[in-house]
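hi! just following up on the protien thing from before. the input was this:
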Amino acid sequence: MQLQEPRHCTVSIENGLLSNADGHYQKHFRDLSGLYADASAFEALLARRADDVAYEVTSYTPGDKTSDMIMGVTRMEPGKVGHEYFMTRGHIHAKGDRPEIYYGQSGSGLMQMESPSGEVRIVELGAQHICYVPPYWIHRSVNVGNDELVMMFAYPADSGQDYNIIKRANGLRVRIVDDGQGGWKTIENPEWTARSDAELATIFESGKRS
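and the predicted 3d structure came back as:
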């Protein structure tokens, strides 16, 4: 039996990248259309920073089996669109029963989670904080600090991502905004639409197609 070789990587806090990675992608502000509630504020941001990197991910993928673990680092810019803090697109795993672990390296952020039926959980994620995202939870990262948010993550390599689950519901159930006192708060998203019984069944069935 041929065993895989161990892999050594380091995390650069300064530039938010994983060394010895084999994957790297960037999301620019122009890629995030429709994410924020304040459309005019987002257009003003695009006028200034359309081609700037909003967040980027470097990762290492050893294989594509459940027992293979993808690991990587996400780096996010600080800032707001209107009163709403910068965030990632967010996703649920295509195989819904796959969990994920996030480990904060620097900065101040949140892991915003939503169950398929619309329950909301928010976990603060700072340096040396660990967040466990259980199976079937939709999740996105939000930078609520003044500095770059750098996080390490790991999840089973066959998990896959469904980014459109959020779009189909017109966003997540709550939005993360400035509370006007140097912190953050959640507000209801009036456009949010509850998922149908059929979609819920599809989500929970996805974990059985392993």
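The longest helix spans residues 39-49.
The chain has a mean pLDDT of 96.
cheers
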